Amino acid sequence: MTPARNHDPFDSDGQAGTSGGNGRFARFFARVFENPDNPLGWSLKVFTASGIAVRVHLFTIIFVLVELLWSIPQKNIGIGFMAIAMTCLMLLVMLHEFGHCFACRYAGGSADRIVMLPIGGLALCRPPEHWRAHLITTAGGPLVNLAILPLTCVTLWFAGLSSVIVFNPFAASLVLTDPAFHSSSTFLFWVKVALWWAHFVNIVLLGFNVLIPAYPMDGGRLLQSALWSRMGHDRATEVTIYVGFVVSGALGVFGIASNESILVVIAAFSLWTCWVERKRLRGEVELGSSDFALGTALGPAEDLEDPWTIRKRAKQRRALAQEQRELDRILEKINATGMSSLTRREKKTLKIATERKRKADRGG
Fold first, then answer.
1. Strand-strand pairing, 110-117 and 120-126
2. Which of 18, 24, 279, 297 is the most buried (most CB within 10 A)?
3. Shortest CA distance to 132 belongs to which of 205, 36, 48, 230?
4. Are 137 and 102 in contact (CB under 8 A)?
5. Which of 100, 131, 128, 139 is nearest to 225 (CA)?
6. What is the DSSP string of 49-73?
7. What is the pTM of this model?
8. Cα radius of gyration (the chain)
């Protein structure tokens, strides 16, 4: 499929080159953002590594700035803690997404872009349409976090923070009150805080993505790939969707009962994604939908195309499917009662389909 960056955001009539302030602003906006007509394309390129372009979405920049400003008042955690937390989150999510990309290439697919979003990352991966390739691609992200885990544990041990390697994820802020953090100079204090935040964020990313068997988490995609090998793609996707509904609902109830708003948000997002996957499986989705989560995402490049292009393509697919169903019905009627039983409209439909097939055969 055509990558979104090759999609011309302006019409071919020269709209991008119009004179005046609006034209200059449009040209500037088009240079800065890869696709100004699509909010999913409002991202800035940061760097390219191994042929993979890393971009940061505009909303991610806004999100980070808001979090930093919110942390400034004394009653909150402080801008130093928040800056470390945001840095660890972005770096670990990026490494997670690189894991997906390299795993996809290893499986014989292609991957050339990572987009950092406020709620995680989006890796544009196109693995071969085989359960094993999808399983390898999905597992690549969590394997990066799994490889980092012993490194952070050993580092914390040597830094004298062995008492905080294991912690309660629902009371993480209490860990920073441990005397081990405050028995050193100011510089070493911040180094220890950074080490522990990296450890904390890495475990959270690994846990949420693997332990929740629901879309769009890696756990859901791992489940779908494993079932795919036994029952086929569509059936496996359907089972995973219903498992996701149950798991997300339970997670939401637990989040409400434990007063953990982040769990409620994740549950709601997961329910919505499972619902979108269900509509996509049934061919009811017109617009592309991105698959992303707390640091993981697999999605075709089509997901970042112009929504109107995607809608037109979906409409064409539905029309062709309807025409094929009508043609199959006519052929069954001919087989049962003969050509003479066809109505004038049915004969016209059959003639159009025959002519279209002849043209396609000549073109091929």
1. antiparallel
2. 297
3. 230
4. no
5. 131
6. ETTEEEEEEHHHHHHHHHHHHHT-S
7. 0.69
8. 25
